[in-house]
Structure formats: structure tokens, C-alpha cells
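haha ok so turns out i had the wrong file open the whole time. this is the CORRECT one, sorry everyone. sequence first:
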Amino acid sequence: MRDIGIFDGAGEILALDGISAGYRRRPVVHDVRLGPLPPASITALVGPNGAGKSTLLKGLAGAMPVRGRAMLGSRDLIAMTPRDRARLVAHMPQALPDRVALTVLDAVIGALRAGPAGDPPPGTPKGDAERAVAVLDRLGITALALQPLDTLSGGQRQMAALAQALVRDPRVLLLDEPTSALDLRHQYRVMATVRDLARERALQVIVVLHDLDLACRWAHRIAVLGQGRLHAFGTPAEAVTPRILHDVWGVAARVDARDDGRVRVEVEGLA
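then structure:
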């Protein structure tokens, strides 16, 4: 059996219905329908460059114009005010800004206190620091608390960015290529941490990944995007097929589904 069991406790189901996102005069994502996504699950968005994966995340996070419905239980995230949506949804972009002199601890405290405009401060300075340290401790990076962000390695920066996304205790976690430019060790560490946090907090995680093997290893479900449209959605074995690889990526490939549920892709040439 695959080591990514789904949470059995309380939590709200997420479903995307007719989501379109992009620029006002140039839509990028068209009529995407995903779900239902149960709590404590990981959904990987995969597809070629320019497929609309990051645009979809930005739309769900409220960082880009979006239409449609994103139902978290009975609540439509798209219809919410930016303030209310930001209380439920956290977005981790592809990379932290360069040349940021803040320490990791200060950056996480800043993410906690930089809530939607008009929100009261979440707590006292001492309480905010304790909450930030608790998140760093959960991620195993307390030793980095006083290091400046611009001195961190790639893997350390990704973990610091994850701490910033988690510190406000979201219900939906949107991760844009959290393993990009990481070595195998740090890829495993980031994805294992995301899996464990999804279980512990009954999170819905939607993650953009370029590596199909990584997506098939860690995701409960995979959504394949191509040219802004959804081409497949389901378990790794259902969504990643030779036909989909041919139609979306333009490659001829063999797909091997193992008894433990894992899927391996071997590209044999261009279609």
C-alpha cells in the first residue's frame, strides 16, 4: 500500500467548479472542475510549461482575477472578501524574494501579522514569536530562526517559505513548485513534511509539480493541465496514462503501475 493514507477525521471537502483565471484580456485557465478533494489529501497539478498551473493557484489565492466556484464545505472561497479568504487559504509561491535581510523568525512573524487589511493584530509580540517558533519547531528548522533569509540554501529557503504559509493555520494550502531546484534529500523532506501536515491538520493541499514521478509518489490525486484546460483528473494510475502523455506533453512513454499503487513513467521518445 502507498504510504499516503487519507485522514479519517473531521474536515471540509474542497471542490472546484468552473474555475477560469488569468488576465482581464487574456484568460489562461478555462473552466477547471476538480473534486471532491477530501481533507488531509494532496492534489498535484502537472502539465507542460505554460499550462496554467501557477495561474490556477494564484486565482484560488486571490492574487489574480478568477471566476467560478471553489467550495470549501458550504463556503465559496471565490465569493469571499479577500480578508475572509486569506484566513482560510495560504499560498506559497515558487521562491522567496532575493536579498531579504530578515531573519527566518522575523519573516515568519511578519507573515503571521501581515493579515488582510483591517484585521486586528493576531496577538502580543511575545505570543506571535512563540507561535512562529512553534511552527519552525514543527518543521524541524528552529536552528535557522536567527539566520537571514538571504544566507539560506535552496532547501532551507523552501522550508522557511512553508513556515510562512503555515503560521496562520490555513485550511487550504497552495504550493507552487516547492521542490524546484532541490536535491533528492530535500525533495523528500519537503514532500514528507507536507504529507504529514496534511494529515495532522486535515488540510487540502494543492501542489504544482513538474516531476511526474514525484507527483505519482506523493499525491492522492493528479490533475493534468494543458493549454489552460483540464485533461485528466484522478488517482495517479487514472490520470497519468500513455494517451495523456502523448496528447498533453507530446511524448511516447510507457507507464508502469505497481502493486503498491505507485506509478512509474518512462519516456521513450517524442510523439
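Residues 1-9 have pLDDT under 50 and may be disordered.
again sry for the mixup
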